[in-house]
Every structure is written in C-alpha cells, then in structure tokens.
Design goal:
The complex is a heterodimer of chains A (139) and B (323). Chain A is an all-alpha fold. Chain A has six helices and no strands. The radius of gyration of chain A is 19 Å and the shape is elongated. Chain B is mainly α and 323 residues long. Classes of the chains: A mainly alpha (139), B mainly alpha (323). At the A-B interface, helix 1, helix 2, helix 3, helix 5 and helix 6 of A face helix 1, helix 4, helix 5, strand 1 and helix 10 of B.
Chain lengths: 139, 323
C-alpha cells in the first residue's frame, strides 16, 4: 500500500495525528493506573475479592453489592485504585469526540456545510451517549 | 519514524508493566482472594483469569489480524462461553477491545488514504446513533435472549464469511445522486499493482440504510461490525475492497464509541478484566501484522470459520439452557 500522503486531505491528516497520540496516551495511562491498582498502591473502592465474586453476576448485582456508581459517578471515587483506571478508559472512549471537533472548522473553511453539519451531529450523538442519560439500568 | 520508535518502545513497556502488575497482585493477595473465591465456589487461584485473559487475547489478536476480522467478534462469544464472566461485562469489555483496536489502526489508515473520512462520516452518524439504541436493547433484554440472538448472529457471520466473495475493484458504471451529493469518491494508490484507482459509490441510500441494522447489532452484542461493514461498502456500494476494509476498521472506532459509552455508564466495564483484554489483543494485533506475510490465509480463514461455528453454537446452547 502507498505511504504517499500527498492526496490525503489535510483534515484527515489532522484527525490521524490527534488519534495517534490520544490512543497511545490513553493506553499508557491505562497500563500505569492498572499497575497502581493491582500493586495495591491505591486502595480500591471494591475489594479485589468482591470483584472476582461479582463478575459472574449480572451488572445490577455488581452495582448493588459492590456499591458501584453508574454514569459519571466514578469521578467522585477517582482517588480509589479501581476507579482511577477509568481515566485511561474514558480518554480512549472520548478520543473520537475530540478528533471530530477540528473537522467542523475544516469543512466550513472548505465551504462544505453538509459535512460540517454531519460532524456537529456526530459530536452531539456521542456526547449524548457519553452523558449517561441513555439507558435505565442493566438487567 | 518517530511514531514507529514510540510504538516499538511503548508496546513492550505496556505489556511488561501489565505482567509485573498481575504477578505482583498475585503474590500480594493470593491467599486471601483464593480463599474468598473458594468460598464463592469459583475454582482456581484468583489471579488466573486476568492472566489467562491477557494471553488468550494476545492469541486472539494474532488470529483476528490474520483472518481479517475484528477482535470483538471472536472475543464476545469465546469469552462469554469459556470464562466465568457474565455476558454484561463480556460485552462491555468486547466493545472496549474492538474500540481500542480500531482506534489504534485508524491513524495509519487515514494517513495512507486507505480509510476515507468522507465516506465514513455519514455512515458513522447512522451506525453510531443506532448502536446506542442497540446497546439499550441489549441491556434491557434478559441474558438468555441476548445469548440466543448472539449465538444465531455468530453462526450467521460464519456462513457470511464462508460464502462472501468480495470484489477487489467493483465496477461502478454510474454513481447515484446521493453519492455525488455527499462527495463519496476518491483515489487510492495500490502499491502492489502500481496503479491509481478512482472510485465512487452507487446504491448509496440502501447501503446507508443497512448501517441502521449494523449499528443496532454492534451495540446489542458488543461486537465490532467489520464483518458486516465490508460486504455492504464493497458489494453493495461499490467501494474498492482495500478502501472498504480500511474505512470499515476506522468506522468501528466511531460506531463502537457510542455503544461503549452506554456500557461504560451502566457499569459494565470492570477494569480488572477489561484492561488485560485490551492490552493483550493490541499486542497480538501487532504480532499478527508481522506474521501476515508468512501466513496461509486460506487455513486461517477456515480456522476462524470453525471457531465462530463452535462459539456460536456454544452461545446458542447456553442461551437455551443446554450448554
């Protein structure tokens, strides 16, 4: 396959660069926070033995018996070993939203309002999913 | 160059950190947790599963690359069938696995113009919106119903892979009005033939509508949807195979994001099992890429079909209360 990027649109190259650093940054963050968690440097909110008992149960049981918050409630517990892991996970899941933001300006500059509108709508859809409004609880 | 150095240095560090961490965790808490697991009726030392998952996903990553399928489609049926985790957490981790793989592949595909942002944007909007609906349906349905549907879907995917005959460069005689309006066209250079290929789409509207179903299924089962994206883009819309494969992989990074957020917000992502899965699969993918040149694709293809038939049947039987 070609590595000639001369035909690649600039907005696509920018997206690619942001994604590269964001993705590997979040994976590194995950490895570090996981190490802090399992090495016991930071005490977890849900004890390890409880997690291993509850991961075979439905999510509802895990939430109730583990005292695990839904949605963005984990932010209150970010100092705990297990919930610190969500910083990397959330960064990974948020990368697409961040990468879409510069596309709006790029397409408006190219006088392509349809694609700018598609980018805005996609950000709204992903923000809606990320908001925690969606869904009323697992079974 | 800088990126390659970063990748080469970063991956072993990530893997080593994880292995050390799991080992240290084992050494530190082994006695206490093994006892509690025994009390709970779960056999084997507690640290076994994260460690097994790490190696299992490493192998899965190699196979997935060699077979040209996403990690999620193998991960969900196999892990839900053979590991002690509930399907809720397997689907949450499966989406994170598929998402991480797609995000890692995205930059290279976009830079080389093998994924088309212009083609992906409208498709992704439809698929990601529907993936939210799919995730809500999946979390609301009883586990056995989801397991039965998952088994049936996996069996269908196995047959689809067995039967599908993708076309390298489909002939699009006349692009349709929607394809023209959305500017769904481009040029890619194929180094293997040394030629530039101009491409455009036809049957754009039915193709886009298919992504409603694909999005719902991706969200419902926590699968990546590369198995469905590629045939629709290639056979239905007339996109060249290499651009279809590249755009499909990139698309997963957007579709799976919306579904992953739903599972994440519902508490379906447990770091203790999700992170070894993600890192193991990404490691395996990198090794798989290096093995790609030496692999015998026909053997790998039949092996994956066999694995999918087996795991699909297992999921189906489990859902029916037989397995």
């Amino acid at each position: 396959m070609t590595t000639d990027t001369s035909q690649t649109p600039p907005e696509q190259l920018l997206y690619s660069t942001m994604l590269f650093y964001g993705c590997w940054g979040s994976l590194t963050l995950m490895a570090i926070t996981y190490a802090l968690y399992v090495l016991g440097v930071l005490t977890p909110h849900v004890p390890l033995e409880t997690v291993t008992q509850l991961w075979s149960q439905p999510v509802k049981v895990y939430l109730e018996q583990g005292g695990v918050p839904q949605g963005w409630g984990w932010l209150r517990l970010v100092g705990q070993g297990d919930f610190l892991n969500f910083t990397g996970i959330v960064l990974l899941a948020g990368m697409t939203i961040l990468c879409y933001v510069p596309l709006i300006g790029a397409y408006l500059k190219k006088k392509e309002p349809i694609f700018a509108a598609v980018a805005v709508l996609e950000i709204l859809v992903l923000l809606f999913a990320a908001s925690g409004i969606v869904g009323s609880g697992g079974h | 160059m800088k990126r390659q150095i970063l990748l080469k240095a970063g991956l072993p560090v990530l893997g080593a950190a994880l292995l050390i961490a799991v080992y240290a965790m084992a050494a530190q808490n082994d006695a206490v947790v093994t006892q509690s697991m025994a009390e709970a009726g779960v056999s084997g030392p507690w640290w076994l599963w994260p460690l097994v998952l790490l190696f299992f996903c490493f192998i899965l990553g190699i196979i997935a690359v060699l077979a040209g399928v996403g990690g999620g489609v193998l991960y969900v049926p196999l892990v839900s069938g053979f590991f002690p985790f509930h399907l809720d957490f397997v689907r949450g981790a499966g989406l994170m696995v598929a998402l991480a793989g797609a995000l890692a592949a995205g930059p290279g595909l976009l830079r080389r113009n093998l994924a088309s942002l212009r083609l992906a944007l409208p498709v992704a909007l439809i698929a990601s919106s529907c993936a939210i609906v799919g995730a809500m349906i999946g979390l609301a349905l009883p586990t056995n119903v989801v397991q039965i549907c998952l088994g049936a879907t996996i069996l269908f995917i196995a047959i689809l892979i067995l039967k599908s005959k993708n076309v390298a460069v489909p002939e699009v005689k006349k692009p349709d009005a929607l394809g023209i309006a959305l500017g769904m066209n481009g040029v890619y250079h194929d180094a293997s033939t040394g030629q530039d290929y101009a491409w455009k789409t036809h049957r754009t509207l039915p193709g886009l509508l298919m992504f409603i179903i694909i999005g719902v299924m991706a969200g419902m089962f926590g699968l990546g949807a590369g198995w469905a994206n590629v045939p629709v883009l290639n056979l239905m819309m007339g996109v060249p195979l290499k651009v279809a494969v590249g755009t499909s992989k990139f698309l997963l990074s957007i579709t799976d994001t919306s579904a992953a957020w739903v599972y994440l917000n519902q508490g379906c992502v447990i770091p203790l099992m999700a992170i070894p899965s993600i890192v193991g699969l990404m490691f395996g993918s990198f090794v798989g890429v290096r093995l790609l040149a030496k692999a015998k694709p026909k053997f790998i293809r039949y092996m994956v079909i066999g694995v999918l038939l087996f795991s699909g049947a297992k999921a189906l039987l489990k859902g029916l209360g037989i397995g």
